[in-house]
Task: structure prediction
Amino acid sequence: MSQSAVIACSEVWGNNRAAAASLALPGLVGWVCSRPYHGQEAGGDVHYISSCGTGRIARLMLADVSGHGGDAAGVASKLRRVMQRYMNHIEPQALAKRLNRDIGDAVGDTGRFATALVLTFFSPDGGLSLCNAGHPPPMLYRRASGRWSPIVQPDTQERIANLPLGVLDSVGYEGRELTLEPGDVVLAYTDCLIEASRCDEAGRPDGPMLDISGLRDTLNALPIASDPQAGPRVVVDALLDRLSREKYVLDDDLTVVALMCTERSAGRGTASRMMGVVRALRMMAGAIVGRSPAPWPEFSMANLIGGLWPGYRRRPRG
Result:
């Protein structure tokens, strides 16, 4: 059964359980499809979507804990507290560094780690900042060209950077910045998708894995690729249906999230902003009594001034 989620100010939505849900945020609509390994209740894929107190900044965090299914679920459940703590930190690269440190503490000596993708959308100017910690690159659909292509990270061959979370205590994270126009779509996913292989009638692998180039070609071959009216759910459903018909087997936790830019937006109205402040204060009060980590704001000009003055459009940078 599908759900619908309108993400409120200062809210974190998502988990590591099965999901089929539409999303609505300022300047964005989306669709989340998450299927834990072999129908288990929870898995190692974790998806969280948040909106800052003013509604100008939306974030997607998609993490894949090593392992699959219930074996990885215990570590995955700890990620929510880490992500909630930094909900109001708008710089994705700085956030990745904090996540790396805290995830290392969370996994301890279990030997597990997590790849992660952090996407931050700034609705007043359509700016998208992303930081990739060892995760498969998201795909970008440009409505102007009608084509899909992967969003690759900067070359880091000469330095240690953008490693999965929890591998090294001290590592740098670099990102990409681009601008989304109305009708553009970003598709984020876990590695189950590109590691899918064609199988014969007996279920045995009968060909190479889909990989990133195969995913790109499959997306571009969909009739939906040239349809400007297609929404995020249609894109995800069409992709998974095509892979199923071509006998690809998805043999791991799977999560696919599609986000479509709809418009430029200054954020929520005054009443909604005030409710966002109230939620933030309640969460901080909860932190004092130990119920949850406090979502402290990031003390930057883009965050503080922009939250008070909607006309301030400077985009956050990492």
